[in-house]
Every structure is written in C-alpha cells, then in structure tokens.
C-alpha cells in the first residue's frame, strides 16, 4: 500500500530545519507520549533492545531509557540535526545511542527488537506496506510495537481555510485508522489495538498556528504542493477564512491522534500479499529433518 503523498526529501529538510525550535512547540507531542508510555504496560518482559523510531530531539527516548535502564535504547531519526539536538537528553548516567535512519529501512538484524516505539512519526511515511513489513522484520516474536500517528481530521480547519483560497494542497493528508489497522494485519502483526483521540488547541490568531507548525517541522511536504512563493492575496484570503472559525475569541486547530500497539508474529505466521494471497516464512533450521529420505 502506498497511500500517502509525501516528498521524503522535503520531510527530512523540514525536520532538520526545526531541530533548534522543536521543543518550544512540542506540547501535544509530550501529551501523546504519555499515552504511549501507558501502552508499554502491556509488555511484561524485561527488554534487551528498545528502538525509538522518529525520535526527534530525544525527549521520548530519554523516558524509554529511564523506564528500561538495563536495555539498549536507540534513538533513530531521518533528520541528522534532530539527533544532534537529542544529545542533550542522553546523560552520562543514562545514555542512549543515536542512529540516522528511515522507518522503512532500519539498520537492525532480523528479529532483534523487543520494543519498537514511535511517537508521531509514522504519518510522514509514504508506504505503509514497507513500514509495517519492516516492523515485523525487526521485532522479535512477541515483541511489542507501540506508536502514535495523525489521522485525517488533523488540521481540518486550516485545510478548509486554504480551500477558500485555492485548490492546491497546503496541508498534509493523513491516513484513517482503518487503513492503518488493515496494513498492520496484512503485514502479519498480531492482535493490533488502535484508538483515536481528538485534541483541540487554540491560538490568538492563525499566524500563531503556522509559526508552531514551522517550529515543529510539520509543514507541507505533499508531492503536489506549489513549489513557488504564494501570492499575498491567496495568503490573506486563507487568513480571512480562518478568522470566521473563531470560537470564544480563539482560533481552533483539531489534531486527530491515533495510538496503537501490536505484537511481533511467531515464526512462520503468514502475511497477506498486496496482490492477494498469503506467504509464510520459515528459517532453514526449522525445516531441518523434515525432508523424507
């Protein structure tokens, strides 16, 4: 499944530029992080390796390191400046490794991860099939995947305001919870559980929301976005449209947040193929002795 529309080079640039401002605007990210920490309670083992995918500036990685002091904890992010900023959260008492990598190509051996964690990163990945197949590849059987991502109602007010100005995509599009669940099952992940929460943040004016998005690196990375500077008239028309949405004197912005967890499948569990049918994989060792003589 390739249902998203992102320019990955632009995603990397956006977050790289935001490395020094991200933590000035990450209140929602920290709130959602608490939901993921609660889900970690389902994992009752003592993990040896914990990976934080899309770690950003490392706040969440530091919390994972605190929760699992005996584990190898690794922060991974596609934007190198983010990982450099994460250094301040890796104390000498509770250090963690930092690796520059994309979520669909993790530099990890097969079945080597006990806990795979990602907070508000997966929404920027183009290919859900590749994403969750990679999760299955690196997770140990019975290992835990826990993540959060944005749903399609995210920034619906801003999207509607831009629609009054022109018909070009100015706000990134995100996938529905059901698409995510189907992709997880197709990849072979076991017992997925997904929930949706909606947050409404408010601002004194639309420009403050736009400043926050830029500070987070969460600006438009749609492949079909306009590549030239917007005219002032278009921008003013969007602002005027957004002003009509004020509630109690404040500008609202909706964030639809999907949180989910699932388990690494046992060896040999089948997974669905994009074109139909299923495939199962077994190690050579598991097949020894099965040949008839």
UniProtKB/TrEMBL annotation:
Reaction equations catalysed: malonyl-[ACP] + S-adenosyl-L-methionine = malonyl-[ACP] methyl ester + S-adenosyl-L-homocysteine
EC number: 2.1.1.197
Pfam families to which the protein is assigned, alphabetical: Methyltransf_11
Signal sequence bounds: none
GO terms classed as biological process: biotin biosynthetic process; methylation
Broad class of enzyme this protein falls into: transferase
Keywords on record: Biotin biosynthesis, Methyltransferase, S-adenosyl-L-methionine, Transferase
InterPro entries referenced in this protein's UniProt entry, alphabetically: BioC, Malonyl-ACP_OMT, Methyltransf_11, SAM-dependent_MTases_sf
Amino acid composition bias (Polar residues), ranges on this chain: 282-293
Annotated stretches, region: Disordered: 264-293
Function (record text): Converts the free carboxyl group of a malonyl-thioester to its methyl ester by transfer of a methyl group from S-adenosyl-L-methionine (SAM). It allows to synthesize pimeloyl-ACP via the fatty acid synthetic pathway.
Similarity remark: Belongs to the methyltransferase superfamily.
Protein name in the entry: Malonyl-[acyl-carrier protein] O-methyltransferase
Gene: bioC
